[in-house]
Design a protein that fits this description.
Distance between the termini: 18 Å
Strand order of the largest sheet: 3-4-5-2-1-6-7
Order of helices and strands: HHHEHEHEEEHEHEH
Number of domains: 1
Shape: globular
CATH topology: Rossmann fold
Strand content: 15-25%
Helix content: 25-40%
């Protein structure tokens, strides 16, 4: 499980913001992810009205899809443009307010109240701010997190989920010596050591 030259790679918040500004968002998918559709029953586990967390959510179309099913969606995204694009592309009215516990952070909430997107660094969040979640859809977060921050990320995610929660994680497998990332290669052994 050689992670090659990726171990030291760091992508800054400014670089992510620039990707959104330049429209360099090949990681965004216009269609629902087929793996979420395939494993939706695993995520929901026969339950309704769940609180589902979308780490590094971008403008993921699955947020509206799950909200329309009656679930409460909370996402976090560093790009305000991505968050605003999500609401405008789905014609969802929203309100915007500061997050008192996090300097400079904003929370964008659909007027229906079932979608709340925090615009800040994910590492500024805690369960005291956003509560705990019944499910997580991690389609592109762990693989986008800088390798040096994975332990910090996993610890936060473990802290944000309820005991009986479901965590769906999508990773990518490739030779890390041939691609510098992101998305970063996260070997299965590391996922097990991070999440147990």
């Amino acid at each position: 499980s050689d992670v090659g030259s990726q171990k030291e790679r760091v992508v800054t918040e400014e670089e992510w913001l620039q990707k959104w500004e330049m429209g360099n968002i090949g990681f965004h998918k216009e269609q629902r992810h087929p793996l979420l559709q395939k494993y939706l029953d695993v995520l929901l586990n026969g339950r309704s009205g769940l609180r589902i967390f979308f780490p590094l959510c971008g403008k993921a179309v699955e947020m509206k899809w799950l909200a329309d099913m009656g679930h409460s969606i909370v996402g976090v995204e560093v790009s305000e443009q991505a968050v605003k694009d999500f609401f405008s592309e789905h014609s969802l009215p929203y309100c915007e307010e500061p997050v008192p516990e996090i300097s400079g952070a904003k929370m964008f909430q659909s007027t229906s109240g079932n979608i709340s997107l925090y615009c800040c660094s994910i590492y500024d969040l805690s369960s005291s701010i956003v509560g705990k979640f019944d499910g997580v859809w991690d389609r592109g977060a762990l693989v986008a997190v800088n390798p040096c921050d994975r332990q910090r990320y996993a610890s936060l995610m473990i802290n944000l989920v309820e005991k009986n929660s479901s965590y769906l994680l999508v990773t990518v497998s490739y030779d890390p010596n041939k691609h510098k990332g992101p998305p970063f290669y996260v070997p299965e052994s590391e996922i097990k050591s991070l999440f147990g």
